[in-house]
UniProtKB/TrEMBL annotation, chains A, B, C, D:
Domain Formylmethanofuran: tetrahydromethanopterin formyltransferase Ftr C-terminal: residue ranges: 148-299
Catalytic activity, EC: 2.3.1.101
Full protein name: Formylmethanofuran--tetrahydromethanopterin formyltransferase
Keyword Acyltransferase belongs to the record: yes
Catalytic activity: N-formylmethanofuran + 5,6,7,8-tetrahydromethanopterin + H(+) = N(5)-formyl-5,6,7,8-tetrahydromethanopterin + methanofuran
GO biological process: methanogenesis, from carbon dioxide; one-carbon metabolic process
Organism from which the protein derives: Methanococcus aeolicus (strain ATCC BAA-1280 / DSM 17508 / OCM 812 / Nankai-3)
Length: 301, 301, 301, 301
């Protein structure tokens, strides 16, 4: 099908289950909340080589947070539940507790299927000087530190969410693909319960499982040469159309498949509005690996 | 001594050796370089619970970089050399190679005492499609990806640097200490070869080795209750002066002791310019643990 | 009354009618829209010496704009209708038409009592190459420029709104007042139909009508010495309490009194959450000049 | 000639004399200085319809400013000296004096040929409560306000500088031209004594003197249809090459011709590094109007 003159390939994105946490970080000012949220979600692109997949989901104004201060909701994701708990303890303990004026709240709410005692465990840093308190119906711990009292909700909700939602933007030039990817990310930033964990939300490198070159047989994954514009005239079976010179991928994680679908839809729509975009496609493994199949064309029916 | 009316305690910051890498990330635009540098240095406050200590050191304009594009120098640090190499491979491989239009250069230059083959190892991602090339006297690898060709210098220099340079800002209110800490960080950002790895450069929580509460004997480190303003009237031997209600610490890592000293000096000077700052002090272990002792008062002689 | 332990003076903010326009600027990306919106609303603090009062009201995601691209709503205000039209032609013609990929839409909607033919007049820049087109029910002009086609709605709605809504934050130190003012602005940024036209939304200088010093009789307005913390011990009738050392004012313009009241309320609430804030008050002329009286305490009943 | 494979037209940019002021704004933190500098230089693209041409030139770290605080140098320009003084009084009086913690210093230094008594005049706002003081060799006024004391140097230096330095970037797509323009601005931001007064430094609309359409004879300037990519197939004598679909202009003002030349040079170099850029040219009036002729090719000899 075509949207805004751009060809949408009749294919699907194949996505995987992942444990997702959704956490609200508040602070005295928006800027302070963003600094903590950014640090806590850094080095969090893909669990292939990062210790977690993480990102900022959205800003929450002071009028809508439990403590009446501005905040950011972040998501931290990991395939293994125990590793996710470890990541939460480390990222919240080192990048949020240490940041000026912050507090931490569960933001998974009723979506949660389980809870991790992250606040309960971090409170031991208080050495007995911490106190337990109620904020509305929330059980909080208040830990004295140099910058005042750090407050954190006792339990943080998690659930099985979705990782690896994706689509590819192919355009006449690298810059057209790049601006389209930026526009896609801007649009996706408005979709609740999703994050785009790569730098600025955009992925510049595509990989394939394994290798082609027998000398590189020690590599578990290598560049997908068929998707490299600079190789389109020199490799066999290149998937780069003749009029395409730039490709970027958007990867989406989220709390549930519906959210990832919505993000995929608004992201594609935004990308197609940029002049020079030629084709949108998606990555999959033939449906063999991931239980979630997000069919691009169905999103627009 | 007093500076701008602020009491500078006659004490010293005790700092430790750490392996430091110094890497330049360039991109098509300043914004793209910053996005990659921010992701690559996230979750990097302290090796106590983060996988590395990392931060952005400075911006380098296009006129001063090897490829004539804007860039940011980052530092990534770890006590163990092998762990540092691992961190470089992961952080550059996942957070920079994947980011649009980036290239990576050694920025340690002649300060290096050793080199890690980071580019050489990451090039295997190219599956044989990568090429080796020279840029001036630099050996580079060019790896085809969707967004063009990712370029990285073959070897990255490292050396034994300094971690844990520090000073504490004590002020009449939490906000005075906070604004003073922000001013200190702004000043330190102008000092080459140093980073301030905590969120926004500022540390809100101070810790002590071990515990006081016997029920918490499983904790290796806990809050330093003597430095907590909200406990100043309830704990014994509080180190919080009567007129102090806010404390923040600045932690500095750097390529060498001279750089960390300079950062400490300009940071303290900047902090003392903020109304309400009462006292500057520093953290140490009596000189027993860290070989670097940065005496605050000597900095101003 | 007291809120979060802060004394709220039983007084009122006196505000004035002003002609208000409310305009949506969209662009290919959020960043490009923000650049145009920022330039178009600069040099717009107070009509005492600026050519208009102007500010960014809020971000609108791509999913909620007429052209499916991200945008910012700005407000531009002037006491005289003809001057407001002049300002719109100049600011939109010079700071938005010239900016990459922008489009301009009316955002006053049904609140408008009159319309200015701003798009109709700016289209003459097209020298006959412009075209008239419909976007849903909107009449747009499309003007060819180097960066593509600049699109602007034919008519922009205006109405009599409210200028000069205000409150003052008094705190133990300059920094406490400053952080509280930042927190207030963060909260007000979430209130629709209002702007805070001063730099960063915060006013550091208070003025009185006329002069005290007879040598300065040529001045129409001078500093309000009674509200200067550094003069509190040297001027007569200082209004600075003994425990106050920092004062900032928030000034609010808006589409109607309800919006300005709501902004005043959430701003005060946010400010009172910052440690060290002692008192909130407001500025008025005894009710003689401005027809709008926003009573602080009534906001919280 | 060709640079990085991009055709540089053998033409020149024609520039004009303009009165230039160069002013340093410092504040407690970098962020506060930037807020004031941004507000003071807004609505300042072109004196055709803006009250001045203005922009931020560069950041100055705390270690290099007269008061040891971080700051930004701005330039404000106007063809008429009296109008420039008026603009300085209004922009510094309304957008900087009102902003938290700011101070203002002359940054023209020995380049100045004349001085305007801007600080001397603004001090009257102090109503006699202001004081005169020395900071090193500078004569300063200190005016008590709510946020402390606003400090401003008595006299600000001005000189005849250069306005309207320019070059045009033509590329295969709108996005390639846009990213190249962003790269050019990033590079120019590193050149001292120059500003790029348009939004984000980039000009999306080109104009010609007068009109073509006789019905529009009341217009002094209209779109330059020959430079509009969307008209390239429909207007006579289009100057858009067949392979070009996006054009942006960079306009540069500066303290002297040397600075504007240097900015032009580094900007062009940066633009040519972006894939898809086809041609660089410049705008002139045949040399009849502006005394400054910046020949593009000579810059690279």
């Amino acid at each position: 099908m075509e949207i805004n003159g751009v060809f949408i390939e009749d294919t699907f994105a194949e996505a995987f289950p992942i444990w997702v946490s959704r956490v609200l970080i508040t602070a005295a000012t928006e800027k302070l909340a963003k600094i903590a949220a950014t640090e806590a979600t850094g080095f969090g692109c893909s669990v292939i080589m990062c210790p977690a997949e993480a990102g900022i989901e959205k800003y929450v104004p002071a009028t809508e947070t439990p403590d009446g201060r501005p905040g950011y909701i972040i998501e931290i994701c990991h395939p293994k539940k125990s590793a996710l708990e470890h990541q939460l303890l480390e990222r919240l303990g080192q990048c949020v507790l240490t940041a000026p004026t912050t507090a931490v709240f569960d933001a998974m709410g009723e979506d949660a299927t389980e809870h991790l005692k992250v606040g309960f465990k971090l409170k031991f840093f208080g050495d007995g000087y911490e106190t337990k308190e109620k904020l509305n119906d929330k059980v909080m711990y208040s830990v004295p530190i140099m910058g005042g009292d750090f407050k954190i909700e006792s339990k943080l909700g998690i659930k099985k969410g979705v990782a690896g939602g994706n689509f590819f933007i192919m355009a006449d030039s690298n810059s057209s693909a790049l601006v389209a990817a930026e526009a896609a990310i801007d649009a996706i930033n408005g979709v609740e319960k999703t994050i785009t964990p790569f730098p600025g939300g955009i992925v510049a490198s595509g990989s394939k499982v394994g290798y082609t070159n027998p000398k590189y047989s020690f590599m578990a994954a290598t560049t997908n040469q068929k998707m490299c514009p600079t190789l389109k005239d020199s490799v066999e079976d290149s998937e780069i159309p003749a009029d395409v010179n730039g490709v970027y991928e958007i990867v989406i994680d989220g709390v549930d498949e519906e959210a990832v679908k919505e993000a995929t839809k608004v992201g594609i729509l935004a990308a197609t509005k940029i002049e020079g975009v030629k084709k949108i496609t998606a990555g999959n493994y033939g449906g063999k690996l991931g239980p979630h199949q997000i069919k691009l064309c169905e999103l627009f029916e």
